[in-house]
Amino acid sequence: MPIGPARMPLFEHLGELRMRLVRIVAVLFVAMCVFYLATPTIIQFMFEPIKDFMPQNPDGSVALNVLDVFGSFSIRFKVSIWVSIMACMPIIIWQVLAFFLPALKPSERKWFIPTFAVGVALFVLGTVFCYGFILNPAVEWLTDQAGGYASIFPDARSWVDVIINFEIAFGFAFELPLIVFYLVVFEVIPYAKLRESWRTVYITLMVIAAMVTLDASPVTMLLMFAALLVLYELSLLVARLVLGSRVKEQKEELAREAEEQRDWAEQWEIQKRKIRERLGDDED
Length: 284
Known about the structure:
Elements: H1 10-37, H2 39-46, H3 71-87, H4 89-100, H5 106-144, H6 156-173, H7 176-185, H8 191-196, H9 198-212, H10 218-243, H11 246-283
Helix pairs in contact: 1-3, 1-4, 3-6, 4-5, 5-6, 5-10, 7-10, 9-10
């Protein structure tokens, strides 16, 4: 068989991988340089949802403090990296796809590209949801806890870490529909089984919401739980549309399994009864 893009020798694969990685690093480096210069504006944008709970400068911008000489650089560096990765995500994904796609079968490519696209979209949706609906009530609850005994000192590094951690946590949490969809489509967990176990699933979603909401606030936890619940139901709806008639087959299969379990339980009870009767006869 002739050697094509999917059947290159090992060293050519390594060379291809190195080229893709160099491109990704180069793009990220350029983006970091640009965003590093724009970090003050980016930070003010990051703090926009919570600036009402923080001291402000006369021009309305958030007044932050840096506690050590290296703090300002580390903050700008961290923010520029995070924003660069988000901004360059399409290029990063394209380079990853360009490396792996030639080795995939046409049937596999059909799922590969939509998976990456939906995964990125869900991650961005999670960060937007966090920015628009979570940060404000979360920080309000956190700052209220200091009422009556302390004042919160607006250290720039800790506040930036809180916002970034919240954004990343919600971004990954919003990948749940993709996971559920593939679990159902590839029949790792049947659709009917998830539908029957909705109580267990809902409790699991509530636990995930509690783990993701770093502030342990009941308000943010409920908002996160509501978002995960909607995404979960939407993922099941899409999976049902994709599966079509296979959903009915899964339900019938689960019904047969349940019937077999009942038959086995009945047979076991009969055997136990016979054993007890036999033991009783032996004692007599």
